[in-house]
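User: For my dataset I need records formatted as: sequence, then structure tokens, nothing else. Please produce one.
Assistant:
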Amino acid sequence: MKEEARKELSGAVGWAAAMIALAFVAAFAHRQGYIDDDMKVRVIAMNGLWIAWYGNRIPKAFVPSACARAAKRVIGWSMVLSGLVYAGVFAFAPMPLALTLGTGAVLTGILVSLGYSLWLATKAKTKTA
């Protein structure tokens, strides 16, 4: 089980590094004049698709606890939806609105995930007490 967790963690770190590298490459290309400011921000918006892809993977990993499976389902859905909203607004909305809505969508997904996980934890703690 530890090997599987290590493999999953290294994959997640790899994707996070790729997301950060893409942002740096886009910023460098913008400074060199290869892409304009609008394109730089839209390239960085591809992170929303990665968030959605990773959110889709979350519930697929097996965990023995029904409580953990429920948490993974909600976390997965919130990440998929927030990532798709992020990518969608960056693709079609004006930039100032896209920055506000996209960031808000991802923060909402994170807060939903955290809030549901904490709620389940307190519910499970109350059951055992």
